[in-house]
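Our consortium's second objective concerns turning raw sequence data into structural hypotheses that experimental partners can test. To show how far this objective has progressed, the report includes one record in full. It was chosen at random from the queue rather than selected for favorable results. The single chain below, 251 residues long, was entered without modification.
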Amino acid sequence: MKYTPLSIDVNLRPEGFVVHLDSLFAALATLTDRRDARGLRYALVTVLVYVLLAKLAGEDHLRGIAQWVALRKEGLASVLGLAKPQAPHATTYSRVLRKAVDIEDLEQVARDFFAGQPETGESVLLNLDGKTLRGTIPAGKTKGVHLLAAFLPEEGWVLFQMEVSSKENEIPAAMRILRQLDLRDKIVTGDALLAQRELSRHIVESGGDFIWKIKGNQSRTQEDIELLFAPEPCVPGFSPRPGSRGPLASP
């Protein structure tokens, strides 16, 4: 069982990630619980804290999150000040994430919280990457919910994420994302589809730089690059002149 992943994949670095639980609890407590208050067994904020802590530990599957919490329920109850140790079933997490909370609000609160942590967002590399969510392709269709994310690979978390409309590709979505971010001193990377003049110009004008992969969909650019780095033709038996173009040529 796997739920639609939130754009809060944070810090799976080997050295760990320190979170002040009181601050995280307070941030998540601002979210509105859309469930009927009668008969609730788990407070919304408790379930959401469990989800985020499990995700910090590398769990994405609902069963994995539930198992991670179950193995640590006594310790979690102690640090969170809960009346008794409890571990929600995987179906509880599913219901909460589908019905009890507005996912966009949850993602915004989580982004703001993690963005405020020390040293967060200071890495140079910023990767633009798209993915289609599992389980979102309707029967008889070929396309599901497709997201484009601005990801910090050196820190392990998504800085910003946006859904790509079914009537567009990732290029206009990439521009909308980049306009939301501080690109100063960042190096933006992406696949061949994003090797576009307007995106490149915006990044440079915003104080950043870019590295794009070039493949056959940019045939003219690919030919220019191959020509630039091709060795200079020379007569058999002779060596290229010093400083001539080629992979090892001096600039």
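The partners drew two points from this record. Residues 12 and 57 are 7 Å apart (CA to CA). The chain has a mean pLDDT of 82. Both points have been shared with the crystallography group to help prioritize constructs.
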